[in-house]
Specification:
By secondary structure, the protein is an alpha/beta fold. Helices cover about 20% and strands about 25% of the residues. The protein contains ten helices and 24 strands. The strands form three sheets. Strands 13, 14, 15, 16, 17, 18, 19, 20, 21, 22, 23 and 24 form a twelve-stranded mixed beta sheet that branches. Strands 4-9-11-12-1-6 form a six-stranded mixed beta sheet, covered by helices on one side. Strands 3-5-2-7-8-10 form a six-stranded antiparallel beta sheet, with no helix packed on it. The longest helix is centred in the last third of the chain and has 18 residues.
Length: about 475
């Protein structure tokens, strides 16, 4: 007999299973209180990660059904008595929230997530399901419009409280040398699908020429494209265009100097100030983590470079940009001296067997972020408000140029599904027993090769982990 289905509700409202239908069972089968029906039925579902994909209609010949009442409270898991009877059948579930019903078919036709089909027009709620068949586990998230998911949060939300998907070496989607390319999709496509943190490495083209503002996009000492240099200016135009279309959003941009030549950090900081980030309507350059309302429509600068002397005097002598200059190298867990950034950036995966160590470090950093409690405005008046919350930046990335099995795309093919599994089944599971165990945030999760073949599940799971914070903000 198959294992019972575990359902985890990672939404802000109770969800109740109202009906189970077992399709594809031989017509002679009946059991318990099930009603045996032989007829043609249709099943509608939509792949959430491929919005352009047509709905699929798949006829079945028979099913048995059972009306049930199985309540799963917000942020709880429940082992049910629902058991698929054989590998040849599909299970259809009807879920209900506040009188509104939604339908789900499992197993899903692809390994990607699936949106539940609302059974009424103009639904108030929308849900995404991730079915982990190997574990007989189903996780439900609130579906988000990934192009503008930040609109649901209040202006006084600290940016560090959010669960934010990011990409590593974000513009490296071009034909390039092994280990240089880290992304399957372009920056605009990443933004449209929910990514809000960009990791950018640049090399000043002519650092001694004050009039030359050209910053070449690089990864290490290599250009990001074999067909010619790509430049920061063009990338920024794409980011500005996205923010103009989606003014509720912000993009956190980590900038670092890499490449060849004799350029210095001080020269890079001067070029950025004089030619790029002087417009306060486009950039947030204060040396602190902003509230969301301060950052909407803007790029938030996280600097991984030293400042020239003049910029050290900005903001009353506090400096310029969020200070991540002294970023510990190849670390499983370290906090920058500024206290604004806590990072996991272990990247020396020299052998494929070390990928498990990278997965472990990534999961541990997710749990560090999950334990934090965001300080909401009403809590600011408390005698002991929650402590300052840094950016938890968690790199799911690593590579070894000399070993094919450790190139970025190979590591991502193992690490990304492992993190999806962890977020769905285990992340912040202590909250299932403890109401005050933190907000369950993931922090900023920086990924390679998300969106490959249309699979944005990792991004959806990260964004979905904002539900508890949203519930607190809106008093649900």
């Amino acid at each position: 007999m198959s294992s019972p289905l575990v359902i985890r509700n990672l939404t802000s409202r109770p969800i109740e299973v109202k009906r189970c239908e077992y399709h594809g069972i031989a017509p002679s089968l009946s059991q318990g209180g099930f009603t045996n029906i032989t007829q043609n039925v249709t099943s509608l579902f939509r792949n959430a990660t491929s919005p352009a994909a047509p709905q699929v209609v798949e006829p079945t010949t028979s099913f048995v059904h059972e009306d049930v009442s199985i309540r799963i409270d917000p942020f709880k898991s429940l082992t049910t008595e629902i058991r698929p009877q054989s590998a040849n059948e599909t299970l259809h579930l009807i879920f209900e929230t506040e009188g509104e019903q939604h339908r789900l078919e499992t197993p899903t036709p692809t390994s990607n997530s699936t949106t539940l089909t609302p059974l009424a027009d103009n639904p108030r709620f929308n849900y995404t399901a991730v079915h982990l068949a190997e574990h007989c586990h189903l996780t439900l998230y609130s579906s988000a419009n990934l192009s503008s998911w930040m609109r649901f949060f209040k202006d006084d939300t600290p940016l560090s409280a959010l669960s934010i998907p990011g990409t590593h070496n974000s513009p490296t989607c071009h034909r390039a040398l092994p280990s240089v390319r880290c992304q399957a999709t372009s920056p605009p496509e990443q933004l449209d699908n929910g990514v809000r943190f960009f990791d950018i490495r640049v090399q000043p083209e002519a650092p001694l020429d004050p009039a030359n503002d050209r910053l070449i996009l690089v990864h290490g000492v290599f250009p990001i494209s074999l067909t010619g240099n790509k430049y920061l200016r063009d990338l920024l135009q794409e980011v500005y265009a996205f923010l103009d279309r989606n003014p509720t959003e912000t993009v956190i941009m980590s900038l670092k100097r890499e490449g060849t030549g004799n350029a210095t950090d001080a020269q890079l900081s001067r070029i950025l100030r004089d030619h790029y980030a002087a417009d306060s309507n486009r950039w947030f350059t204060a040396p602190r983590i902003p509230y969301l309302g301060e950052a909407r429509g803007k790029i938030v600068l996280v600097r991984r470079f030293a400042l020239e002397d003049a910029l050290k005097q900005e903001w009353g002598g506090a400096g310029w940009g969020i200070d991540a200059e002294n970023w510990a190298d190849n670390t499983p867990n370290a906090t920058c001296p500024s206290g604004d950034v806590c990072v996991q950036d272990f990247y020396e995966v020299l052998e494929t067997v070390n990928i498990e160590k990278k997965i472990q470090y990534s999961q541990e950093h997710l749990e560090r972020a999950a334990k934090c409690v965001c300080s909401l405005p009403a809590q600011d008046q408390l005698a002991t408000p929650p402590p300052k919350q840094p950016f938890f930046i968690n790199f799911l990335t690593a590579s070894n140029f000399w070993k094919v099995g450790c190139w970025p795309e190979k590591i991502a093919a193992k690490l990304n599904p492992a993190i999806v599994d962890f977020l769905c089944r285990k992340h912040h599971e202590s909250a299932d027993q403890a109401e005050s165990a933190g907000d369950g945030s993931t922090g900023i999760v920086v990924c390679d090769w998300v969106g490959h073949k249309g699979n944005w599940d990792l991004v959806r799971c990260i964004v979905g982990m904002n539900a508890k914070l949203e519930m607190r903000e809106h008093g649900l």
